[in-house]
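Instructor's aside before we start: the two examples that follow are unrelated to each other. I chose them only because their records fit on one page, so don't look for a connection. First example below.
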Amino acid sequence: MTNTHDMNQLSSEQKRELLAKLLQEKSENNHIFPMSFAQQRLWFIEQLNPGNFANHISGTLRFTGFLDKAALHQTLNEIVRRHEVLRTSFATIKGKPVQLVIPTIKLGLPTINIEDLTEIEQEAEIQKLVIQEIQQPFNLAQAPLMRAKLLRLKETEHILVFIMHHIIGDGWSVGVLIKEVIALYKAFSKEQVSTLAELPIQYVDFTSWQRQKFQEEVLKSQISYWKQQLEGAPQLLELPTDKPRPALSNFQGATHSFELSHELYWALKKLSQQQGSTLFMTLLAAFKTLLYHYTSSEDIIIGSTIANRDHTELEGLIGLFANTIALRTNLTGNPTFEELLSRVRKVALGAYAHQDLPFEYLVEELQPQRNLSYTPLFQVMFVLQNTPTPVFELPGLTLTPLQIDNGSAKFDLTLEITETPEKLCANLEFNTDLFELPTIKRMAGHFQQVLEAIVANPQQRLSDVPLLTAYEQHQLLREWNNTATDYPCDKCIHELFEAQVEKTPDAVAVVFENQQLTYQQLNTKANQLAHYLQKLGVKPEVLVGICVERSLSMLIGLLAILKAGGAYIPLDPSYPIERIAFILEDTQAPVLLTQSSLVGVIAQHQTQVVCLDTDWHLLAQQSQKNPFSQLTTDNLAYTIYTSGSTGKPKGVQIPHIALSNFLHSMKQAPGLTCEDILLAVTTYSFDIAALELFLPIIVGARLVIASREIVADATELSAKLLEEKATVMQATPATWQLLLAAGWSGNHQLKILCGGEALGANLAKQLLGLCDCLWNMYGPTETTIWSAASQVETVDNTVVISSAIANTQLYILDKYHQLVPVGVIGELCIGGVGLARGYFQRPDLTAEKFIPDPFSDKPARLYKTG
């Protein structure tokens, strides 16, 4: 015979010749044998991470009835005698790792008595003792690599725990061991001899055969198939994790168990039959659908195991035979589930046809990039167990297998489903360095939702397969976005200011350096300028540019534009001339407010220029009364140009109603009163300045405007905070960091508002000890300054965006605009009153970024934040 022949194709005579040859080689080798490919990989892993209990296999049996301990002990040692692999250790000889088979060895059976404990205490103690036993390391150089322990609960109740290292066994081996325990105990408890026939071959025979076989030409087609199948495959499936991936995985894990109902089980079997697939393929396709939603990856590899005992002589052996196959599926094009199942079936059939190649051999051939934080080729496993559960019958004893979580995980995720006659029982094993249990429980629920959806409609596209339970949908859509709040929806900002003027006309409204204005004085000057602007044609929807230095005139000009009915375009004088010219050209603003010193640096433009310093003699002649316009809250308040980091700057159009809602929300939380003093530091060309400039003057507080020079110098800004006795300041994290670096010691009367950039945990911890309260703000310009505000009270590793402000909705959506589950990466989309009208004269971009709100029963939009 040749080594490339399949053993099942050999005649009885040929098999006898092969066995005789292997036995002769064993005699010549003096009990020293090469390792199998799988053993070699596990041995290598053990050298990198000694004592790794993730590679321990356990079995736990509860004996109810009168147990003959001597017969049980004899039974275990007879099994050790029968199976050479249970008497095998591993060593390095001449630089090569090998198996050493020890002729005889005895296995102990120590007993732990916990009879004195209550039933509840016993169950806890069992869990603790079993886990301790599982996690106790093996020394691969010292046999046996299996141990057993007996727990005595009472005279008629015992628990047998046996642990073996994966290098000498697999899941099938546990079943073999239990079958032999039952057969041998029956005989020995009656003082009879063993009824089991001697094993025709041993594990080392398989090892020798495997090594010979995979030196032959037959390997080429297998290797060629797998190389083609896995060419260009992603190294890592980027699952959304609860914790950062550690540099070195220690394989700590846990397991969540759940069941799939009888009705769902039979519906899945029926669907499989209709589609010409197996239940394994259908469940695998469903699992890939779940991972597709979780990762947005269209190239997903999942590992699976095969028993690899396709020769009858191997079925009764204990040993590491199981092989692993990598099942890679292309999910591009948003296929229907039926189409995906067809792809999965094709991949699975191809893998089965090439399953003989040891996974370890494949890894060696492919040489994937090694990373100690995750396993090569794939990080997620799927296994379907559908072998019948053996009936455990012993004289005077009832045997019950126990499922105990061993606290380990070989992969990021392993979904193992066991098929019983009535239902499907599932275990979702997860790496606890990456995931928290609540996340895994949600994932299990989402998997069940996927299964329910595909049996109901296998023609639906993957993007339409729902993951969320009804409760989750309610939570995401209603409970967490229940932000409806009354606000002055019929009042514009200048009208709210005018109402405050009536209440506190003589209170100081605004301070700049050594100048100040009362509420009445500020209103009078703004009114005079507003009347003048109306004579220049300013009315609702007319854009007015304003380019002035930080000063009282800046606030007067902004208020006047709003009072006249117009919408302001802020232009920071420090902007490059080209940017100012672009904005003026783009908007064709008919009026520009500025100062005489700036006229020369503003590009020539066909506009009416009003200098707020040299032209004031004309403005002072205008009426001091509040002007009237046809303005409504649906009209524009301002058009502000973004930085243009993704192209040319674009004008964001914000209506009064959005600004009114925002300021009313900020008035409530973080909350401002007439007792507050707000120090304004932000350039008014940033939308955040609208909060600094308008919020204080609609609540009766005092606004202090810091000059450009003070804002640019952290030491001077620190002194200004102290000098003005400021109780509120908004700034970016970068500004607060500069203040701390300059020695700012804080102010326990100060409310800190932090926005514009992500607030880091370390900075937040520092600020919390230096102020009255700290608020973290988030929001894009397109949704009116901030869309979320949350008070930071404690800090872990991250400062979260947290809660939407009033009349605002926050959704995380996938690329198909479907809600994603909690913890799954998606795009933040914002809805509500705060949305901008769109981009100035950019209907294409407006349509791209402002999409219909699929969750509203009225016409509404969402802004895609990107």
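Example two begins here.
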Amino acid sequence: MGDQLLHAAGEKGGIQITDAQSREAVVTSFGSRVIVRGPIAYILDSDRLCALDRSHYIELTRLQQKKKKTPAEEKQIAELGGDRRQWLKWEVACTTPFELILAGDVLVAGGDGQVAAYDLAEGKQHWTAPVAGKAYSLAVSDGCLLVGTDQGAIHCFKPAAAPRPANVVAADSEKKPAPSRPGKRDLRSQRIAQTALAAAEATKGYCLVLGAGAGELVGEIARQSQFRVIGVEPDAAKATEARARLRSAGLYGNRAVIHHVSLDALPYQKRFANLIVCDQTTDSHVAPTPAAEVQRLLRPSGGAAVVVQSADRADAQDLQRWAADSLPGVKVERLPTGEHVLTAHRGPLPGAGQWTHFHADSGNTACSQDALNPGPVDIQWFGRPGPRKMVDRHEKNVAPLYSDGRMFISGDNYLVAVDAYNGTILWEHDLPQSIRLGAFKNAGSMAVAGDTLYVAAGGVCAAFDVATGERRHTFSLPVAPAGQDSEWGYVAAVGDTLFGSATKPGATFRIQDIPTQTLIWRDFQPVVTSDALFAFDSRTGAPRWTYQPESGAIANPTIAVGGGRVYCVESTNPASRDVADGRVPLDVLLGKGASLVARDAATGKVLWKRPAELEALQHVVFLSYADETLVITGSKNVTEDGKPLVRYDLSAFDAASGERLWRSTQRPIPDHILQGPHGEQVQHSAIVGDVIYNTGFALKLRTGEPHEGWKWQKSDKCGTLSAAARCGFSRFSNPMMFDFRSGEAMALTSVTRPGCWINILPAGGLILIPEASSGCTCYYSIQTSLALAPRE
């Protein structure tokens, strides 16, 4: 963000980016572009550009909107011009509506095939110029106007005799840097880059070079890797030389930059760097950055620090003393060249949680167990992925996943892996038939275990290397009913076992249309079922066992793994197997009886089977496992005092024996309306410790007794509850955090909107909110992925 600040722009949403020096604001609002300088706002709309006195306009509008006005207020309205629009300074026709920036005393607007410049005082058009495509991106730097278009073209415009900024050294200047010296130092930079990159546990992300000097090492790391390299150099002359050297090599800008700052306390976001390198040469005039500062900046779960001492000053004990207690896992080696090299790798944050399945874990608890504390947060990063390849938020896609510093997001037949600590796109794939809509009526289509991500796509499950995105294996269904081309339904991965289920063709909702909307937003809608459960050895790809129920279909939202067992609810009604598309209404699936079944996870052998007694459920059914307890959550309609209402039924069973522990019917608080348009009937329970949380009620896990502490109350918006060990998260107008102990609520941001199901992941010591508002027409202007970090 450079010297820009990010904050909210009023309750109507929008982002306001304020230059820290000029305090000029650029507000991107719904359907227009707005720039504010002092009392004047410059507004670009679809066909016009205008300037207005915002104080005048706001005060007049406030008075006019009052239903009852005093005589003094009527007089004030007249003095302000009434309907004569005296607040309008000027207004001109404009055919360039895509983007607006302010440069000095000139407004520049981008349009289709052209850009145009307007006078700030009167709105007079100064000039226009053609561009290739639609000009959506404008910037001014070094006296030049840069224009980016949707065709990938970048145009540069400048005055005929633009003055050169004093702090920029031109490529043809007499101050041209000396060419790189051949021989020892260049070879040394290459070798140190190789050593550092070999220690790194990533190939993409951010590398920080401390003491960049003339930029040789920065350049070598940029050439030999895909890192974005930031060189830190406290000497102004060396920083200037390094910039010019990298610019002449074609590396400066996106791949490599030089920052002229002190090495003592670095101005960077904590935990962002995948690799930090320091080359301590004999002519180094600064002490290395404190080890505690290096630790602060290193990315958890694999961030690497490498410090090299030249042979002339090599001192292993000196390096060990420097690292002291700040850098764990330090290793110091002496190279054949006589140099010493220190390497350290940062492990996961203490108490960091994971989110490896649709509802957090294979037990469907919707709780990551992350130990992050509730309280104020700061932005860790924001950016890609944006809305373009995401699923419309209304369709309730599968939740993203998190494991060991990486976040995995499923979009519109699209899969992307992101570095959770700095937002780097690690890899991405188009994956046909992987989209899964209305997932809460089905099962998760992704799971991650160790170094492998599993994703169901049509009739197969693809296994990807989490670091590289390489497709390692493709698992095919081990069984399909005669004459059917079945598809892969449920996905879970525990240890070296991959679990799955077979659904009828067409069972998974993939088309964003009215039937899918009806499934998600209305009462009495079906759930997706399976005709078989199975398990694979994930290392060899060999099938381990397959189970096909004899009586009826398996409800996909009730499949869970925990305690060495696989659980599900299967219908006792044979008609449930005969539904052609596998989308079975609950009166058919459960109304004539259903069984709760536990199987041995290793062999598939049935360990016990008990009547589930779920005949009353009408809208949804879920199963969760935690602490050797199974909890079934479902919803139904009842009539009380002549008024139809929504109720939630919960049943708990001992996971080892199948013995019923308790049964309870709960009233949501506040009361949920029938045919509720925002998921009132489909809320999934979150299990945190020994407490079950749902919409307005909380129960003890083993007894069903009311929990006397905080109780989450669902907002009137879509979404459900996701949880960490100490706090919960849910979507209101914006993402909210709740302290489980005090019940205190805190808005995390006011300018973005999460998705309509689980889209807020408390994991890795972060709060991850990848973009899921695609298709939203509400007043939340920023469609971006972001990560938030607890403020320290």
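Residues 112 and 414 are 29 Å apart (CA to CA).
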